[in-house]
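debug: dumping io for the single-chain case to check the tokenizer round-trip. Nothing else runs in this session.
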Amino acid sequence: MAAEKKMESRLDIEVGTQYSSMESRLDMQPAIINHVKELRATVGWTQEQLAQAAGVSRQSINSIERNRYVPSLELALTFARIFACPTDEIFQLEKNI
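debug: decoded output
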């Protein structure tokens, strides 16, 4: 009887303390591109006005526009209502793969 060969994926193989290239890709956070600043400028609002409409602080709007903070799903949907457009026109996944 032939010995059964155990199937392994690259993630099952120990690689010491280094991550394999596949593991590194799986652990990466997707980069989100947002158009909040452009949409806000189109309607002629200040960061403060958008913050009041969305129910957040002006500092939150600033952080979102500078890509320092990715908003929650709830806030993304609120922006979609405010700007009357689909969320994928406001936020998009950056494709680096």
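debug: round-trip ok. The mean pLDDT is 82.
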